[in-house]
Every structure is written in structure tokens, then in C-alpha cells.
Amino acid sequence: MAYEFTKEDLKEIEKLKTKYPEVTPVTLPALWIAQNRFGHVNPEVQKLVAKTLDLPEAHVHGVATFYTQYYKEEKGKHVLDVCTCLSCQLCGGYDILNYLEDKLGIKKGETTDDGMFTLNEVECLGACGYAPMLQVTNDKYVNHLTEEKVDNLIESLKNGEQPEYEKIGMPRRNNIK
Amino acid sequence: MSKPDWKNFEPVLIPDIPDLDQIKNYEKNGGYSALKSVFTDNDKWPDSKSVINEVKEANIRGRGGAGFNAGLKWSFMPPADGGPRYLACNGDESEPGTFKDRKIFEYNPHIFIEGALIAAYAMEITTIYVYIRGEYKSYIDMMEEAIQDAYDAGYIGKDILGSGRDIEFYVHSGAGAYICGEETSMLESLEGKRGYPRVKPPFPAQKGLWGRPTTINNIETLAHVPAVINRGAEWFKGVGAKNHPGPVLYGISGHVNRPGVYELPSGVPVLDLIHDVAQGIKGGKELKAVIPGGSSTPVLRADQLDGITMDSDSLRTVGTMMGTAGMVVMDEDTDMVDVLWRIAHFYHHESCGQCTPCREGTGWLEKILLKIKNGEGEVKDLDLLLDLTTQMEGRTICALADAAAWPVRHTINRFRDEFEARCKKSVHALA
Ligand SMILES: Cc1cc2nc3c(=O)[nH]c(=O)nc-3n(C[C@H](O)[C@H](O)[C@H](O)COP(=O)(O)O)c2cc1C
Ligand code: SF4
Ligand code: FES
């Protein structure tokens, strides 16, 4: 498959160039645009980014492989990143990961045969107070996970629904004893 | 020292005002008045230095973890020479246990934008970047919107409020790398490269982004600036603990009934935060341990907490630090070996690999702790771990190696019995 940016993508990349005094800094946002377009930044896509920005392929490859959020190969349609780091570990993050492994019939790092789900174990996502939690395909956080909430999430993703942004209200002083 | 009257404290960064994220509401509640004062009131603020002095006097200690006086840091910028100068705002927020800056992005983005613009004015900075971790996609979108609103209102851009000052303000998204929270790694990432921390000196104030003078501050640090300008350094210094003053966003997580981010004065007793603010340990269990300010800050046993308050002086007396004020609370059933192994795994995973003591050291720490966790360690492994930590500290390009070493040393020392109990009896018969 030949990868090409759309006109809109190219326009956005041109606009990004005005944010920085040189073109190299556009590498990260351009990789984001590419990943949003193609679902991953495999070596072919990395080449496209390099060509578009007129930067060495080795540079783009080096950047793509340094950062964990760039998918260097195709992933499932939905990527579930379960946090098991410190606070999530304390609050049952591993139970959620194990539950998902059983439910999806795969191990962490793997993708289901139907290509629907990839399951990952990840480091702290900055949602420690709302543990255990996971992130869906680099986008929405799903917090306060229970087995039931995981079941519902999987169901709705299968039905093509994306999770909503969960607004977590500030705990207020008048609630403090 | 007297305890701050935290129960009657009125939040400044995240006050209980609905829809404060909307610029109109922010303005209605006094927002951007500090910016107007600094940019237009030449009697009150005759020059940039007068702003730096006020902020220095307030002693806003950096909320990103190191606790350095923000105004003092600003004063390190060399004199302007007409070329570009940068402010890089650190919203990488990846230290386990830390989830506070996102509250500013979500509930009060303009207080941060206003603070950053005042900082830019004071240091004669021409371009501001706010670096936000890539996982915070929702907050990146919110910040893009807030910055656009501030552009449209004339607070960012050319000739701001007729001051003759031009300042640009951009969001730069990370893409998953804890190390990019380290300030020079963040600069590399902003320059579009792999996030390898730089050797210092030269310091960013001399040679930062694209070799130009650059200051790096945490999001919360900058969000404190408008109130310092509006109410004065004296006011700020009067809030909370003497040597670590001002409001603090405490993030409380772990085994508490009501985890969350709370804005309270510095210097609140640790036990008040756990028992009153976060409403105690889940399931009525006993408290076992607390990590006060993110995973790198040394853990405290429950019996060390009497009278200890959340500020650097008090925490130092029990051998720990304020860090990011991200408190992780652990109940009596917590397995300290498992916890420490998980922390070691984190730092090993996140080491950028440039320095041998860090790359190899974090790997060994994790490996040996896994062995102990699995019941296959020996008591001498504990001493090997402690020895490794001394070989890692202070020998690397950035502080990640230290951040990995501290929790290992202190958790083992403070919970030695638990670690020994997990070790095999010596397999070698004594002669
Ligand atoms: C490994 C490592 C990770 C860091 N991560 C962060 C971070 O996520 N956010 C942050 O504000 N500071 C972080 N810091 C501290 C920054 O290097 C820097 O000191 C800080 O952003 C300066 O801002 P402040 O003085 O306002 O606190 C980190 C430091 C190290 C060594
Ligand atoms: S101390 Fe570790 S993270 Fe920091 S530069 Fe060296 S190898 Fe990289
Ligand atoms: S430990 Fe899971 S979000 Fe921080």
C-alpha cells in the first residue's frame, strides 16, 4: 500500500512549520498526523514523513522509535493501555489487566485474531487518583475500572461507540469534614 | 510551627467557580488583571526586573519537583540581545502519583496562560511553548482552545495591550516518554528529536532551545504568578509554611476513601491530608506508609508521620522531600516488596539509556527486586541493592538515576524486616 497524506494533512503540516524556527521540530506533530491518518507509523509511513518534511529517514525513524505512543506497526482497531503503575497497582490495576487478558483471550502486547483489540500494560498515565484506569487508543481515559465497567467498555467499542470524556468533578472544600 | 488554617483556605488555582475555563468567566472573576497591570502600569512595574523581583520575593518554589525559587531562576536569564528567547512550560506530568497539572488545563487554563505571559514579559521572552504529555490528548485540545481564545482577546500575539511586546504561544504534544519531563530532554523533544537529556553546563538560560536563552517552569509554578502580582509577594509568603509558601495542588491517591487533587496551603500535616482531606483509609484499615511527592520521593512509615507537614523543612527531618506533592497512601496490607519492584520497573522502563550507571543500574535494581519478590532472593541481595544505589547516584547526565535509586535505598532501609522475610534462608551452610 502506498501511503499519501491528504491535502488537509499537508496544509496542517505547513501550518505547523510556522510554530517553530526550523523544520525538525515538526517531526513529532507530523508523526501524530500520520498516525491519525494511517493508524500507525510503520517504516513506510516514517519514510513518507521524512520525505514530506525533507528530513533524513534515519532521523524520523529514530524519533518514532523513541516515543511509546507511536505505533511502529499496525495495531488492533482499539488499543487498550492499562496502567499498572504505582497507584494503579495499589488499586487493582493488575486485576484489570488479567481480567482483560482472560476476556480477550490474549496476553498483554498481543492483538485479538479479529484485529479488534490490542492490549498493553503501560506506565503511569497521570490519573492516579482515579485508579484503576486505562486509555483507549491514545485518546480517552476510562477511570475507576471495575469488571463490569470493562465489560461495558468492550461491548460499546464492539458496537462502534467511542467512550466519552469522563469529567471528574473537583472535590470541594465544603465536602471536607 | 503553627499549623495552617487549611479548612478555611480559599483556593486560588482551582476555585469553585463554574466554567472558569471559559475566558469570559475568567475575566469576569478578575482574570488577566495581573497581565494588564504588568504590561501597562509603568508606575507599578517600571521595568521587567521589578516583576522578577516581586516573584523572587514571593519564593514560589518550583512545583515540578525540585522546589527551586521561580523568580530566582528567572533572574538567571542573560540580558536580552534582540534575538529569540524562550519559555518552555513543563506539562509532561509523568511521575507516578502525580496528576495535578491536568486540573489546571481542565478547570483554569487561563490562570496558567496569564502566568506564563507575565513570566515572558519579565524575562523578555518572545515565544512560549507548553509541552504536554501526548497521553493528555483531551487536555491538549482544551489548551489549544484556551490559547486561541487568549490570542483572540489580544493577550497573546503582536503588541500585546499596546505594550509594544510581541509574544507567541504554542502547544507541543509529547508522544509517550517520562524522560521528556526532565527539562533538557524536553528541550530536545521540542526540537523534534529523541528525548536524550543534555549535559549541563551549559544551562538552558544560556543555551536552551535552538541554542537560545530558555527558562523551564512547571505548569502549576506559572499558575501561581498572577496571584503574586495581584496580591503581592507578602500575601503569598503568608500562605502555608514559611520556607515553602503558597497554595499547593496536592494529588492524593492509593488506599484512601476520597482520592483526588486538593488545593490547600503548603505545610498541611500529612495525617490531616490522609484522614481529613482524603477521608481516611479505605475499608477502615490502618495506614502503613506514604510516598509524599511522587514515586521518587522516599517513602515514610506510618510511625514517622507524627507532626510532619507537607513542606521541604518538615519533610527533610524524616529524610524525604516534597517532590510534586503527589501523595501515594498505602494501607496495612500493602506488600512493600511488590511496590518497590513496580517502582524499579518504571524507572528501568523509562531510562533513556545514555549513561551506563543508569541504564545498567535500573536494570539490575529491577532484576534483583523481581527475584526477591518471587521468593528467590537472599539477604545479601538487599545489600547488593543498597550498594548499587550508591553507584548510581550523582554519576549521570540527569537525575533519573537518582530518582530510581532513592526509593530503593529508603524503602529497603525503612522496611528491612519485610524484605528480609521475603528472602530465602541462606543456602550456604555456615562453616
Ligand atoms: C526524570 C525527570 C522527570 C521530570 N518530570 C517532570 C515533569 O513531568 N513535570 C515537571 O514539571 N517537571 C519534571 N521534572 C523536573 C524538571 O526537570 C524541571 O526541574 C522543572 O520542570 C522545572 O520547573 P519548576 O522549577 O517550575 O518546578 C523532571 C525531572 C526529572 C529528572
Ligand atoms: S540518567 Fe538515565 S535517563 Fe538520565 S540521561 Fe542518563 S541514562 Fe538517560
Ligand atoms: S499510576 Fe496509574 S495513572 Fe498514575
Automatic annotation (TrEMBL), chain A:
Keywords: 2Fe-2S, Iron, Iron-sulfur, Metal-binding
Superkingdom as given in the UniProt entry: Bacteria
SUPFAM superfamilies listed in its UniProt record: Thioredoxin-like (SSF52833)
Pfam family, one: 2Fe-2S_thioredx
Database matches in Gene3D superfamilies: Glutaredoxin, NADH-quinone oxidoreductase subunit E
Family: Belongs to the complex I 24 kDa subunit family.
Name of the protein: NAD(P)H-dependent oxidoreductase subunit E
UniProt source species: Rhodohalobacter sulfatireducens
From TrEMBL, chain B:
Cofactor: [4Fe-4S] cluster; FMN
Catalytic activity line of the entry: a quinone + NADH + 5 H(+)(in) = a quinol + NAD(+) + 4 H(+)(out)
PROSITE patterns: COMPLEX1_51K_1, COMPLEX1_51K_2
EC number: 7.1.1.-
Pfam families hit by this protein: Complex1_51K, NADH_4Fe-4S, SLBB_2
Oxidoreductase in keyword set: yes
Domain of life: Bacteria
Domain NADH-ubiquinone oxidoreductase 51kDa subunit iron-sulphur binding positions: 337-382
Annotated SMART domains: NADH_4Fe-4S
Single Gene Ontology MF annotation: oxidoreductase activity
UniProt-listed InterPro entries: ComplexI_51kDa_subunit (IPR050837), NADH-UbQ_OxRdtase_51kDa_CS (IPR001949), NADH-UbQ_OxRdtase_suF (IPR011537), Nuo51_FMN-bd (IPR011538), Nuo51_FMN-bd_sf (IPR037225), Nuop51_4Fe4S-bd (IPR019575), Nuop51_4Fe4S-bd_sf (IPR037207), SLBB_dom (IPR054765)
Keywords: 4Fe-4S, Flavoprotein, FMN, Iron, Iron-sulfur, Metal-binding, NAD, Oxidoreductase, Quinone, Translocase
Assigned protein family: Belongs to the complex I 51 kDa subunit family.
Task of the protein: NDH-1 shuttles electrons from NADH, via FMN and iron-sulfur (Fe-S) centers, to quinones in the respiratory chain.
Name assigned to this protein: NADH-quinone oxidoreductase subunit F
